[in-house]
Amino acid sequence: VPDTQELHDPFEGQRDLREKLVRAVGVAGDRMREDRLRALRAIRFAARFSFAIERETWEAIEESAPHLGRLSMERVQQEIEKTMAQVERPGDAFRLWRDSGAFAVLAPALAQLSEVALATLDRLPRATSAEEAHRTTNRLIALFLDVPPAQARDTLRELRFSNDRVRWIGDIVERWHALHEAIRGEMS
């Protein structure tokens, strides 16, 4: 209350902040059914601030995963972009996407994302200004390096990335796979 400077906290948000915990307000399953994007946002916030996700909220995210296909792909793409731009260690967020089943529904090519790929992603710096937007693209490239090039391009198109981004990321993924095969052939 502004006049008395009293803080009313009926959902004990202050406690959750101290405990570094993401928790849905009220019944977690209801919140996820009301807006399926909340599952992805909860994951992004947890990863961005190094918070844990409260058990009931996590269970609601897992239960929501099979229904995430109802989201527009533009919204999903925006959530991926925000994660890349805002989260220091995006692998933490995308591990939760994978483990919750979100990738299996939204981008099946990424459903089996390896720990090596996630760790690689975390080594790439995030953009801290508009001049560093290429860093977000670098992170997107790393996200798709384990995916066969044609499948990477298809997934990027399905997620409504621009034609330029699809072409750029797809070409680098293709070259990565060719280099990988050449190295493997030389080591055999």
Describe what is shown at a glance.
64% of the residues lie in helices and 2% in strands. The protein is built from eleven helices and two strands; from the N terminus they run αβααβαααααααα.
Structural write-up:
By secondary structure, the protein is mostly helical. It has eleven helices and two strands. The chain has helices at 13-18, 28-34, 37-49, 55-64, 73-86, 90-100, 102-106, 115-123, 134-144, 149-158, 163-187; strands spanning 21-22, 52-53. α2 packs parallel to α4 (55-64), α3 (37-49) packs parallel to α5 and α3 runs antiparallel to α6. The longest helix is centred in the C-terminal third of the chain and has 25 residues, at 163-187. The mean pLDDT is 94.
Low-confidence stretches: none
Strand content: under 5%
Structural class: mainly alpha
Shape: elongated
How far apart the termini lie comes to 71 Å
Would you count the extended β strands for me? 2
Question: How confident overall, as mean pLDDT?
Answer: 94
What letter string, H or E per element, gives the SSE order? Answer: HEHHEHHHHHHHH
Number of helices: 11
The value of Rg in angstroms is 19 Å
Percent of residues in helices: 55-70%
Largest beta sheet: what is the strand line-up? 1-2
Largest sheet: 2 strands, parallel
